[in-house]
Amino acid sequence: MTRNMAAPSRNIPTIFAAFGATGDLMRRKVLPALFYLYNSGELPAMFRVVGFSRRDWTDEEFQGYVRGVLEAHAAKSIPDREVEPFLSFFTFQKGTFEEPASYEGLKKTFDACDKEWGVCSNKLFYLSVAPEYYDTILNSLSDSGLADPCDPNEGWTHIIVEKPFGMNLNTAKEVDELLSNLFEESQVYRIDHYLAKEMLQNILTFRFSNNLFEIPWGKALIDNIHVRVLEKIGVEKRGPFYDGVGAFRDVGQNHLLQMLALVTMDHPESYEATAIQKRRAEILEALHVLSPEEVRRSTFRGQYDGYLNIEGVVPDSDTETYFKVRATLSHPKWEGVPIIMESGKRLGPPLKEIVVTFRHPAPCLCPPGQPHHKNEVIFRMEPREEILVEFWSKKPGFSFTTERRELHYMMREASVHVPYVEEYAKLLLDCVRGDQTLFISTPEIRAMWRYVDPIIDAWECGDVPLVKYTPDTGEVLEEAAYIK
Ligand code: BG6
Fold first, then answer.
1. Distance from the alpha carbon of residue 101 to the mean position of ligand 1, in angstroms
2. pTM for the full model?
3. Strand partners, 339
4. Which domains does the chain have, with CATH numbers?
5. pLDDT 10s digits, 175-231
6. Which one of 120, 198, 228, 463 is at 20 to 30 Å from 208 when CA atoms are compared?
């Protein structure tokens, strides 16, 4: 299904089954996003959330929990009339992931709901669980027949899988093979919430719906590209997870590589999900895989002072909280163009953007002795969602001098972006509508790990020293400035 032909979601009876109903992702992202969809009038009229976990809860207790989560998120109490109709969507099913009886219980709940609605509804399975449970849950969904549609002509079943998607190429392949043995690719929705960011979706529109920039978009006129996700926040309370992962796996392997793909991919043949996924995969497959020597020359890793004191971090951990990597593409359009990916935590004010720098014009009508005349196009997500086009203009006056100016497009003037809610709302709605454009396909997963693995392997061999940095400063950015 194409993005612009998405079916109206109100007419799609859907049961949302949440494995790990009280999990961190449900609390922080999914429940606020579902409430946002409800308030936007986007949830199907026939909608049910079945929370599944080992707790001994009644429906009312689960609803009380959901209400608490929403109020904590909104940081205020929500009047009954606003929240009660939403809470009435929620039911609870006690069970463990291992017992077949739990899945039979779920099936009975689904059947009862379908009978009440008089339809064979669609089923959305959301796994808010640690990856070690995937095997048990996915196999049980398949064995119990829960993943089969209840009618050959209506009622699909979709499975939403969260990152981390494996720890390296081999483990990613294992999960992927499990999924593809049990389900069709069209049933699997792998989340990277960056793809749902408005600004990143806008890159394709900016490039392919205007005739202004696409022709110069390539090595002939582009000098370099910077992809940055510089975070203000630290690791916070995620020590046990983060320490085993590190910044490059946490955001580099997925978010930054997807940003790179969107800014460099070829024109998709259409706005079909498969056409866009294919182009993203092709460009990710074109990433030049670094040799150990190139890893030494083209990458940098750092860790902020104080990281080792975080609960769950091993005392002598050498996990990176900052990285910088110079990538290149073996692609006729991009050969030789450095693409710098940089990200880290506790780096001072947040800055999340892609900067495309054009070459100095040659010949140039540039007054001698003036600064370099390079144009930049900036897609920025934080601190504001904006697109900037920087250019050189004649300075008004009697002499011929130039000055740097910018065309500025601010994506939203009034509304405020609520972290995660908008992205998850969009992703959940797309799962309901059956649109996979904003989800990661198997070839993309594989191409990303194929690029990332040799870098992490070289780091683990000690090829690149870990540099300590003072948090909340730009110190490490300066130290790594030689990578360009
Ligand atoms: C998540 C990472 O996937 O993305 C976090 O696990 C990171 O460590 C976050 O902070 C960044 O996302 P956003 O939307 O806040 O830029």
1. 37
2. 0.94
3. 225, 327
4. 14-162 (3.40.50.720), 195-479 (3.30.360.10)
5. 999 999 999 999 999 999 999 999 999 999 999 999 988 888 999 999 999 999 999
6. 228
